[in-house]
Amino acid sequence: MSTFTFRGHEVFYRREGTGTPMVFLHNGGTSHRTWEPLIERYAADYDVVAPDMLGFGRSGRPKIDYSLDLHVEMLGVDPLV
User: Fold this and answer.
1) CA distance between the termini of the chain
2) Of the candidates 43, 7, 10, 9, which has an alpha carbon nearest to the alpha carbon of residue 24?
3) CB contact set of 3 (below 8 Å; sequence gap of 6+)
4) Which tens digit of pLDDT belongs to each residue from 6-24?
5) Residue ranges of the domains in the chain?
């Protein structure tokens, strides 16, 4: 797992493979782990990125409004781009 900082909070993500990017986003209450079988399958042909969205998994859990806009902004942060 790798990390980056978003708004002062640590965000964990898994990145595997090379090629065309493919991003796996989990739903609320879970983590990147929900995608592990698919990450392993597609990493042979793609640059697979699977973050633990802020507030979930191993990522920070600040007391903030977890809006869709917040998560969209987080996805635009390097190295996820």
Assistant:
1) 17
2) 43
3) 10, 11, 12, 13
4) 999 999 999 999 999 999 9
5) 2-73
> In this structure, which CATH number among 3.40.50.620, 3.90.660.10, 3.40.30.10, 3.40.50.12270 belongs to the domain 2-73?
3.40.50.12270
Total-model pTM: 0.87
Supply the DSSP string of 16-71, one letter for each residue.
E--SEEEE----TT--GGGGHHHHHHHTTTEEEEEE--TTSTTS---SS---HHHH
Cβ 61 vs Cβ 16: under 8 Å = no
Closest by Cα among 44, 42, 25 to 33: 25
